[in-house]
Every structure is written in C-alpha cells, then in structure tokens.
Amino acid sequence: MSEEIGTVISGQESPSPSKLEFVVNKGLVHRGQFVEMDSSDGTLVALVVDVYKTNRYFERAESVKEFEASGRKMFEQFPTSEWEYLVAQSRLLGVYTNEGLIKRLTFPPSPGTRVRPAVALTMEKFLGFEKDGLQLGRVEHPEMPVELNMTRLLKKHLAILAMSGAGKSVASKVILEELLDRGKEKGRIAIVVMDPHGEYTSFAEPAAGKKSFKDYSSKTMVVKARDIRIGVPKISVAMIASIIPGLSATQRRELERILSRLKNEMRQGLGPFDLATLRNSISQDEEIKDATKGVLVSWIYSLEDLRLFSKTDSPSINDVVKQGKLTVVDLSEIVDMRKKQIIVSYFSSKLFNERRQARIPPFLLVIEEAHQFCPERTREEAAISKKIIETIAREGRKFGASLCLISQRPINLSTTALSQCNTHLILRVTNPYDLKHIGESSEGIDYKSQEMITSLKVGEALIVGEAVNQPVFFKVRKNKSAESKHEISLEEAALKFEEGKEKELKETEEFL
Ligand SMILES: Nc1ncnc2c1ncn2[C@@H]1O[C@H](COP(=O)(O)OP(=O)(O)OP(=O)(O)O)[C@@H](O)[C@H]1O
Ligand SMILES: [Mg+2]
C-alpha cells in the first residue's frame, strides 16, 4: 500500500458522493492525479481536478494591507509559513470493491479519511485498461501505460478532436502503429487512411538501417490520387446523383435507363464502358427530350474533366484492403475539393458495401480533416461524401466497419457522425465555441475537464467514452513510424526560400 499523502477535510457541501477536498500532509499533489482511500465498500478512487493553497493569515484583505502598509512584513512577525496549506479538490469516480467490481458512490467518505496516491494495479482495472491492448501512451500519476482494448476503442468509432498542431495526426499514427504491430493471433483488421496532406506516406518509407524509427514499409501501400480510376460500370446512379447536384427526377430516370442498358450490353459481351460511351449513348438516345439531354451531356463532360473515371476500377478495393496492412490514399496533390470528396465517397461506399457482404476483412477507415468530407452545414454539392460517412457511422459497427474521424473544427463536423463516435480522444482546444461543442457532444466532460482541456500541452490528451471506464488524461507516446521532424519555423522557411532565390540568380548570371 502506498504512503498517505492527505486527509479529507470538511468543506462547503463536501465530501459528497461526487466530490471531496483533502489537505495535503506530505509531498505534492498534481492536477490530474488519481488518488485512493479506504471505505467499507472497498477502495474509493478520486481524480484531483484542482489544487489550491490557503493561509489564514492572508485571508482578510484589510488586515493584510493595514499591517504591511506600516512597513512591517507579515512573514517576519508571524509564523505564516506554518499556516499555509495545499488543498486538493477531487472528483470521486467510484469504488473498486474487494470483489473486483466497479460501483458508483451513493454515500460520501467521512472527513478525516486518509488519502493515498492510487496504485497502478488498481487504476488499470478501474479505468478498464487491458494488458496487451493498444498502447497509446502513459498516465503520469500513477505512472502507467494506457493500454486499450481494440474493440472498445474502435468498434463504435473514434473521433480525434483538437486545435491545429495539438497532436491529432501523431495520436492517430500511434493507433495505426499499434494495429500494424498486432500479431495474427490477436485478430488484425485492415486500415485505410484518407490523407489530404500526404502526412501518412511516411509509413511506406523504408527505415534503411536507421534504428531511430520502425520500418512499416512492407505493411503499407500508398495510393496516389492521380493513379485512382473509378470504373463507370460499377458506380450507382445514387453515387452519380450525389456527384451531380440538383439532378431532377426526370434527368435521374433517363440516366438510370441508359446506364442499365449499357450495363446489360456489357454483360452480353460488349465489355466495360467509360464516360465517353455513356455521353455518346445519351446524345444518340431518341427518347430523351433535348433539354434533358443537354444538361446530362454537359454534366458528363464536367465529370470527364476530373480525369477520375474509366472503364474499370484501379486499384481494385480487394487489392488494397488486407488484414494487418495499411493503405494510405494520398490526396495531397488534388486541389479540387469535389474531386477529393468523390474519391473519399467512392472508397467509403466500396469499403462499406464489400464489408457488408463479408468480401473484405473488418476495417478501420481513418478520415483526416473529417469536417471537409462530412460537414455539418453545407450546400448539397459540397457534401458528396457526407451521406456515406454518416451511414458507416450509424451502421458500421454491425459489420466491423469502423471509423476514425479526425478534425480541428468539431463544430463544423456532422453532428450525426460525431454523435455516433462512442470514443473521443481530445487534445488541446482553446477556442470556446469548439470547447463548448465538445463538452456537449462528449459524455463525461464536465466544466472542470473542459478547463483542463484548454491547459493541455501538445501531445497531451483526454480520452472519454466506450474505450475507458472513466475519462483519463494521458500523454500520447511518440511515433515509431518516422523520425520526429520538428515543425519548420517561419524564419527557417523564409531563409530557405531566400537561399533558393540567390542560388537561382547566381546560376542565371553564370549562364549568361
Ligand atoms: N505525442 C506527442 N509527442 C511528442 N510530440 C508531439 C506529440 N504530438 C504532437 N507532437 C508535436 O507536435 C507537432 C504537431 O502534431 P500533429 O501534426 O499531430 O498536429 P495536428 O493536431 O495533427 O495538427 P493539424 O491540425 O495541423 O493537422 C508534431 O510534429 C510533433 O512535433
Ligand atoms: Mg494533422
């Protein structure tokens, strides 16, 4: 049993079954620390949510001012330091019974109860950590690894939310590394990442003898956006309708008719068709009214301009989704938002439908910048991928289709999708609107926790929801998959640009 560090005091309306204060008798107590104490039911567990100092001598402003105004100093005249106390405000989390059960408290501990630092062994069970689970980082007090059960973390979807630069991508890469490191006997899922900034391509880089980072290149496949082709015969009218905003019922019906005719002809031996064939068939069709024809043809032209469609799928989903393997869809070269959305929509629908028919293994689909692909409020044409993401969020867990949505603007992220994410990993957030939104959409985040979220440092996180029994603050570990590069400063970027310019100038002069 660890050493006692404090004693429960009688405060305003505390101790109660939900909160207590204790005075620290020995050593230091930190915000975010877990403590424990004995009770007749078992071990009570509490979380220190704030610490403050008090001193009777300095309580009354007028006395302090009057005394010190005369040139005397309080601490010289009185034993003030002996009257300084450190008080820890704590939230009671529950009781860990002697039978190993976790119960809510319905009755408060008594003032005078002795408080000890919580021991890791109790806390692991209390928080629901799992030996051999996914190791995401460490809790500081008591010092222990955060090990989470894969099903609890991912099955009912995960959202990673924080302001820019707080460590979202690092945290999601930690999860991917843990998944890729899993042995076959533990059950491995396939992973697909929608990567708008090309941040995950480092997984495919061979470590080439560098000991500092781990080689995942044999388990990673990068799909460059420019190499992606969507087979026209495979796309549904629903998907076309989501790409073409404002398709009228007549236009849709005609398109459906011609598509199904082409699909029939394909089966009869004419082979797969592309957009040009579809366009020609529309142009040559004699039943469609001219006005409808004109609209459809011009839409097909605009789709052809995207250079995304062809006769067959490439790569095919079954080639890219493999158990224990990672596929990174690198969207960084695309500027056109619509094109990015079509790709995300296409991959998401394919993954979901194939999984539903058990033709591919269970998977985790990671969507970076999720607010861009599944926005809350938006015009129809800016939401091509929204519907399918919401569908996976709602129904995916039944089929082993898990989502990890990452966003720096949770307020702009679809409430439907976010509310289906049963675990939230939250890193630093300071924007009050985002904070309020997170407080409302995550269960178990009270006012004090919100306050703590604003003071988190980069890489520090709070995890709440399905994956853990209680909200836990912890430090996310560093990535193994690449050497940690520090972010380039503005000065460095400016110098680099200038050097390049000077070199260019010199070369031109030499040439002349
Ligand atoms: N757990 C961590 N340990 C150490 N350093 C970290 C950690 N998390 C983040 N960092 C540092 O912070 C930087 C930014 O992290 P990251 O790219 O994950 O932020 P982000 O939240 O994804 O930002 P953005 O919203 O811009 O995508 C990293 O390059 C790294 O240097
Ligand atoms: Mg990021």
Describe it.
It catalyses: ATP + H2O = ADP + phosphate + H(+); Couples ATP hydrolysis with the unwinding of duplex DNA by translocating in the 3'-5' direction. GO terms for molecular function: 3'-5' DNA helicase activity; 5'-3' DNA helicase activity; ATP binding. Belongs to the HerA family. This is ATP-binding protein. Residues 135-350 form the Helicase HerA central domain. This protein has 17 helices and 20 strands. Helix 8 runs antiparallel to helix 9 (290-305) and helix 11 (337-356) runs parallel beside helix 13 (386-399). The longest helix has 22 residues, at 249-270. By secondary structure, it is α/β, with parallel strands linked by helices. The strands form three sheets. It has an eleven-stranded mixed β-sheet. Strands 1-2-5-4-3-7 form a six-stranded antiparallel barrel. The chain has three domains: 6-118, no CATH class; 145-227 and 315-476, 3-Layer(aba) Sandwich (Rossmann fold), CATH 3.40.50; 230-310, no CATH class. The chain is elongated, with a radius of gyration of 29 Å. Bound molecules: adenosine-5'-triphosphate and magnesium ion (MG). Residues 162, 164-170, 408, 458-459, 476, 478, 484, 486-487 line the site of adenosine-5'-triphosphate.
